[in-house]
Predict the 3D structure of the following.
Amino acid sequence: MKSYYYTILIIAALTALSSCSPKVGPYALTNKVYKHQTDSVVSIIEQEQPAMLTDSAGAAIPGEWVGTVNFNLRKPNYVIIHFTAQDSIQQTLKTFTIVKPQVSAHYVVAKDGKVFHMLNDYLRAWHAGISKWGSISDMNSCSIGIEIDNNGKEPFNDAQVKSLLALLTQLKKAYNIPTANFIGHQDIAPARKPDPGPLFPWKLLAQKGFGYWSDELLELAPDNFDYAIALKLIGYDTSNLSAAVVAFKRHFVQTDETPTMTQLDLNILYNVYRKY
Ligand SMILES: [Zn+2]
């Protein structure tokens, strides 16, 4: 009789243990690939090799590796905001966990406010693509990419914006990211990308210290105001000026997306560019 009770006890203990063990989730396999990728990054930074240099005649310049003892990881200095332009969060998570699309982001913010963290902040995600801001031509190397689950035609909901603000607060503090450096994909790739679009709450973000917004009272832009120079000073790539104007209006005007600068647009730009 005693052994019968022991058997019951052992079965109960095993059942309890198995319910505590982590479940194999749908991303177990891709998480394994992530681990493998981070291992390959570690093997790159562990290389102890001097720069192999040659002079103009092709002769080797002598070099030697001497490891310093004072260093840490480079920090992100920009946050780039996107909309996913997809119909569901599952679709986006899938896109970022298969190799073929070659795209990723550090964070994806779901409609219910859940934040998916997909890549360590110190690593380079593939979210910006061909882009330029000021003289920076590799935005992926210096930025955190945040994708908002939004199809591009719908308003951003409150739970999502609330989570985004919490995330931005943490990132700004952790990496000392300047207020001016919270921008959108459209800003850094004006001829290619429309996100996060004119429905994105940039005004609210600016009130919380993430990016800039124009003041309530606007001065009249002077007659000799050169808007192309002002856009360039903010950071826009003005090689396609119409595209830069549209991107600026999607971000700072948000009432129309035409490539023309009205007096109001000029006044807003004149007000905003002096904050940079
Ligand atoms: Zn984007």
